[in-house]
Amino acid sequence: MISSLVKQAGRITGKAFKIAALVVVAVLALIAALLLLLSIRPAVPRKYTETVKTGGGVEARYLKTGSLKVKHKKISAPEPLKKFEVYYPAEMWGADSKYPVVVFLNGTGIPASKYRALFRHLASWGFVVAGNEDPSTGTGASADLTLQYLLEQNADPDSGFFGKLDTDNIGISGHSQGGAGVLSAVSVCESRSLYKTAVALSPTHEETARALGWNYELDKISVPLLMFAGTEGDFETQIVLPFEKMAEMYRKIPGKKAMARRTGAEHGEMLYSADGYVTAWFMWQLKGDTEAAGAFTGNDPELLRNTLYQGQQIDIE
Fold first, then answer.
1. What is the pLDDT of residues 201-258, one digit of tens each?
2. Helices (H), 66-140
3. Do 206 and 92 share a structural domain?
4. Same domain, yes or no: 68 and 206
5. Would you call 140 helix, strand, or coil by DSSP?
6. In which domain, by residue range, is 29 found?
7. Per-residue pLDDT tens over the stretch 137-150
8. Residues β-bridged to residue 73
9. C-alpha–C-alpha distance, residues 194 and 101, integer Å
10. CA distance 82 to 49
């Protein structure tokens, strides 16, 4: 009888082991599926222009998709950039016009290939937009390399971009580590004099940036700068860019500048939640659009009275 019980217990143990093994396999498969989903999931929602709330006419206008159809190119790039992602107006090939450029620096772990909707939106307003897959954009070095590639293409008679880029109107934007990279690119990098304006989205604040080797110098920024951040989540408000750190950084920046925090937005959402004003800023700074300028200039700048933002400051005039 004892031996029978032992055999029965063995069968139960074996069955339990098989069930446990199947559970482990299922869990591992679920984790693998989740990681795959995260690896292909865009950082910017495909239809964000239809879902993000706006608090003013200028913001609403420039959050909408522009009138131009857009094309896209992927080009191999040297390590660690891996590839360039370039979006541009489809009409560019047959037009005599030149198009302003915006270089975009990605945040940590989120390559430019996950920003398709953001790039496509800006290109639809008549910009050539370029990013890369560099995992370490905080130094601003990959911005220089991306811009160098574009300028080489603009000068190459065999390139489709030959003579198409308005090299007098080049802007730069970036998010998180990429925001720190923007500040580096326009203050200490070799190509800093080529940029006409900049936008920093939730840039890593000075102390953390320096600890990580991103040694931007705010007092050397000589181009108009727009800076946005969110108000939600400890990561955004305690680690990346606390309220007081943002105000302190803003005070150190000379010249024309504006800043605000998007109410209710977490760190990742700052990639796109203020994009109506980011697009308006580039339309004004790089294309001379006076309607877009109304968000930041005049007797009653729209950004200052937009209730979706807080902590607004503008020093333009």
1. 999 999 999 999 999 999 999 999 999 999 999 999 999 999 999 999 999 999 999 9
2. 116-123
3. yes
4. yes
5. coil
6. 1-41
7. 999 999 999 999 99
8. 86
9. 11
10. 29
Calculate the dihedral angle through the C-alpha atoms of 156, 162, 168, 169, rounding to the nearest 10 degrees: -130
Residue pointed to by tokens 């005070």: 251
Helix (H, G, I), strand (E, B) or coil at 167: strand
pLDDT score for 34: 28
Q: What is the CATH number of the domain that holds 243?
A: 3.40.50.1820
Q: Which two tokens stand for residue 258?
A: 């504006």
Residues 6+ apart with CB under 8 A from 249: 203, 205, 206, 218, 227
Q: From CA 233, how far away is CA 265, in angstroms rounded?
A: 8
My answer on whether 9 and 91 are in the same domain is no
Taking a C-beta distance cutoff of 8 angstroms, is the pair 143, 185 a contact? Answer: yes
Residues 105 and 172: beta-carbon distance below 8 Å: yes
311, amino acid identity: G
Tokens encoding 117: 């909707």
Cα–Cα separations (whole angstroms), residue 64 to 113, 166, 257? 21, 24, 24
For residue 80, whether the previous peptide bond is cis, meaning omega lies within 30 degrees of 0, is yes
Q: How far apart are alpha carbons 32 and 128 in whole angstroms?
A: 36
What is the phi/psi pair of residue 139, to 5°? -80, -15
DSSP state of 163: T
The whole-angstrom separation of Cα 308 and Cα 97 is 36
Q: Judge whether 302 and 59 are in contact, CB under 8 Å.
A: yes
Q: Which of 135, 39, 130 is nearest to 80 (CA)?
A: 135
Strands 225-230 and 197-201: parallel
